[in-house]
Each structure stands twice: as C-alpha cells, then as structure tokens.
Design a protein that fits this description.
This protein is an all-alpha fold. The chain is built from 12 helices and no strands.
C-alpha cells in the first residue's frame, strides 16, 4: 500500500468506528475550553472534567479569573498536576485576553500562542473546536500512532502534524484529531498493545511492531 492508500484506509476505519466525535473536555465557550485544554497537559480528561466545575464555579470568565490570585487558582487545580505553571498560565492568559483582546478569546493562532501557558497544540485545539478553523492538533499519542501506521517518520509532533496535514483533506482534520485519540485509548495504547489484534496496526502497522 502507498502512504496515501494507508491514509485512506485509516480515515475509513476511524469513520466506521467513530462516526460522531465530540471533544472530551467539558466547556461552554471558547474561554472555558481554553482553560480546560491548558489543564489537560499531562493530565487525563476525566480528571480535568472533575476539576473545572470547581474552578468555573469561582471564575468562568477572564474578568472573574483575574480577581483570583495565582495561589487560589493553584489550590483548586492542584489535582491536575503542574499546578504552579498552569495557575500562572491561566491567570496570565486571562489578563492578556482582557488587556489585549477586549475580554474575548481571539480566533487567531498567533495571538493564542502568544499567551502564557498556551502552546501550538493548545492553540490548535481551540481554533478548531471553538472557532471551526481547520487545524490538526498533534499530541504525543497521535504522534505515536502516526509512526505506528507509517504515516509519518517525524521525530517531533510538529513534523508529524505537517505529514498528516498533507495526507488528509482539511475538512477531515478536526474529526481525525479526536478519532485518533479515541482509537488510541481503546485499541492502540502505548503499552500492552497487540498489533495483530489492532484494527489498524494489523493492516498498516510497522513491521517492527510484530517482532
């Protein structure tokens, strides 16, 4: 199979398994989504969804968030891990939204990436999920599966993102981002993976997986 044929197979299989997709982070608007994605770094979506109601009960807008101290935010989000860094980021991005963007999350990749605590992957998730702008956020899990499926040989998530964008049509990027995440959790985990039983690896998986 060519790489394009493999990509077509992957897209068809994922669409079959996950015909509808929804972002697993609970949110009500672009701001609460942005905060939830920041909290999700090295933390499970389940844990984030347990903590955000506590945080948003205190502050669900940038106006209210800046009224909290960094220490208050840190105490609430501590179970998500990396709380010193994340609390500073959430407080800082909230202030930037107020001071530079009229109190609204900007629908602009560069503006999002300029915010404290917001990297390219976080900005990409917000752009595609909050504003419907085509983007293909790649985390370490998608990076791993793209390598397993021989869709990319990139040694960084940035290179993998470039490779996947070339293989799949723009209108499928948003769904594929979530479909690959769901598939990885259910069928293609980092550890204890049986490639022969995997609906995708068994067809397009690297030979190294079967040794």
């Amino acid at each position: 199979m060519t790489k394009q044929e493999k990509a077509a197979f992957v897209a068809a299989k994922l669409a079959e398994l996950y015909p509808t997709t929804s972002i697993p982070l609970d949110h009500v608007d672009p701001y609460t989504l942005l905060v939830a994605v920041v909290l999700s770094a090295q933390c499970t979506d389940k844990k984030v969804n347990e903590i955000t109601p506590l945080l948003f009960a205190r502050a669900s807008t940038p106006q209210d968030m800046v009224k909290l101290s960094v220490e208050e935010i840190r105490e609430i989000i501590r179970p998500c891990g990396l709380s010193p860094m994340k609390s500073k980021g959430i407080h800082g991005l909230s202030r930037m939204i107020l001071e530079e963007h009229g109190g609204k999350v900007p629908a602009d990749m560069a503006a999002l990436e300029a915010m404290p605590g917001v990297g390219h992957k976080t900005a990409s998730v917000v752009m595609v999920q909050a504003f419907g702008v085509p983007a293909f956020p790649v985390d370490t899990h998608i990076h791993r599966l793209a390598w397993r499926w021989t869709l990319s040989t990139g040694k960084s998530v940035e290179r993998t993102e470039e490779d996947l964008k070339k293989l799949f049509p723009r209108e499928k990027w948003a769904d594929l981002h979530l479909q690959i995440i769901y598939f990885g959790r259910e069928h293609c985990p980092a550890k204890g993976h049986d490639p022969k039983a995997c609906p995708i690896c068994s067809v397009v998986g690297r030979r190294e997986l079967f040794r």
